[in-house]
Amino acid sequence: MLIIKIWTAYVLDLIFGDPQNIIHPVQIIGKLISFGEKILLKEKYKFFAGIILNLTVLSVTYGVNYIIFRSAKNSGIFAIIEIYLMYTIFSVNSLAREGNRVYGILKEGNIEKARKDLSYLVSRDTGTMDEKMIIRSTMETISENTVDGIVAPMFYMFIGGLPLGMTYKAINTLDSMVGYKNEKYMEFGKFSAKVDDVANFIPARITGIFIIIASFILHYDYKYSFKIFFRDRKNHSSPNSAHAEASVAGALGVQFGGRVSYFGKETEKPTIGDKIKDFELEDIKKNIKIMYVTSFLSLVIFSLIFGIISLI
Fold first, then answer.
1. What contacts 36, CB < 8 A, 6 or more positions away?
2. Which residues pair with 265 in a beta bridge?
3. Per-residue pLDDT at 312
4. Which residue ranges does UniProt annotate as crossing the membrane (predicted)?
């Protein structure tokens, strides 16, 4: 039954994408984090205050969704609510939509609008980016978010249903809101950042492997994808971010990383992949295809694995 619900949620996401006119559960999680931050960030011992925030948000998220999960076993209404919430966890449609939007704007030649739209997707400075840097940043975002927007939440839903899937989204949201390495959040967000690293450890590596298989299916350079994955998957300050990027970079013959600006400060990130060719506009489309095939592969393989386990 769980597998059927996850498939249903996945298909709903493909069709509708993130709900636009109904409050999103991640927004509620975000409001809970902001409320807790206002209270706890004032504390003297910021690291321990950050732990309290993290554990409180995760406990509330798991508890509320566990009640819905249990109620869904005896109630059709709660079963519908459960599937709806599972559907909101996926980001396949929204990732493709945002990538296609930047692609379309660049195809029209509107660099300024492309910079502005990209600024909604990434935390880096986009104001002075040229076309190739916009393409690179879009692809890095799609590749990295294939892990935390698709494969990781799917992985945790197969393990623990809606409660664990939504708790993963809370982990991810905490990291995105307080996990910054700056003066304000260095201590307060350290625990949340580490929890996110642990939660993504297995899914990031699985995603890298699935992208190689997706590259084979799509007739991209899967052999080079395999090579770059094992060579460059640790070329990042995060222990998880480079795995998916390395596989994509190898498959498409491009090089991620290099010069980038965050909050007005330029940084030279480690490179991922070899610069076999310059970034081309169509690479965004290819990246989106990889993301789609990777998501479906994950769904099929997880269904087979967890289906067999449930029969043992």
1. 52, 53, 56, 57
2. 262
3. 79
4. 47-69, 75-96, 149-171, 202-222, 290-311
Q: Which among 35, 65, 36, 31 has a CA at the least distance from the CA of 49?
A: 36
Tokens matching residue 246: 């390395």
> Measured between alpha carbons, how far apart are the two ends of the chain, in Å?
16
DSSP assignment of the chain, as one string? -HHHHHHHHHHHHHHH-S-SSS--HHHHHHHHHHHHHHHHTTSS-HHHHHHHHHHHHHHHHHHHHHHHHHHTTT-HHHHHHHHHHHHHH--HHHHHHHHHHHHHHHHTT-HHHHHHHHHTT-SS--TT--HHHHHHHHHHHHHHHHIIIIIHHHHHHHHHHHHHHHHHHHHHHHHHHH---STTTTTTTHHHHHHHHHHHHHHHHHHHHHHHHHHHHTTS-HHHHHHHHHHHTT-SSSSSTHHHHHHHHHHHT--EEEEEEETTEEEEEEEES--SS---THHHHHHHHHHHHHHHHHHHHHHHHHHHHHH-
- Which amino acid is present at 219? H
- Using CA atoms, how far residue 196 sits from 159, 169, 200, 274, in Å, is 17, 10, 6, 29
Tens digit of each residue's pLDDT (9 = 90 or more) over 210-267: 999 999 999 999 999 999 999 999 998 889 999 999 999 999 999 999 888 776 677 8
Dist. CA 18–CA 10, nearest whole Å? 11
- The b/e string for 194-203 (b: 16+ C-beta within 10 A; e otherwise) is ebbbebbeeb
Residues in the chain: 312
Ranges of residues in the chain with a pLDDT under 70 are 263-264
Tokens linked to 270:
């480690």
